[in-house]
Design brief:
By secondary structure, the chain is α+β, with helices and mostly antiparallel strands. It has one helix and eight strands, in the order E-E-E-H-E-E-E-E-E.
């Protein structure tokens, strides 16, 4: 995929990436990675599927102007360079619903978790 300036975006992450959405009450929806399909065929139909499967591996991307999670047909979460405004869309990576009631939203707070040493 390319950003709004026509530059190719670099994606990173693994199939352990997921999204979640709080619902009314104390329930939530979890959207896990929609694994890509394996195929040994080399025909044109398979090439179309390979292109579509790439969208299923667009976990995260970021640069000094934005942060995105998910891709292919839309971005599950997009945050602007100031981490103030965002958008949510359905995407092929997680096959998620919109994560809030409106497509555009204002960020109130952000929590970030990092693990330096996860040796068990």
């Amino acid at each position: 995929q390319k950003n709004d300036k026509g530059m190719r975006m670099r994606y990173f992450g693994t199939g352990e990436t997921f999204l979640f959405k709080f619902k009314e009450g104390s329930t939530f929806a979890k959207y896990e990675w929609v694994k890509k399909e394996e195929s040994d065929s080399d025909d044109d139909e398979n090439q179309k599927k390979v292109t579509k499967d790439r969208a299923k591996e667009l976990f995260m991307s970021g640069d000094n102007t934005m942060v995105t999670i998910g891709g292919g047909g839309g971005t599950a979460i997009y945050l602007d360079e100031n981490l103030r405004f965002g958008q949510t869309e359905k995407c092929e990576t997680f096959e998620n619903d919109l994560l809030c009631s409106d497509r555009d939203f204002t960020v109130n707070s952000i929590e970030v978790f990092g693990f330096n040493d996860i040796s068990w």
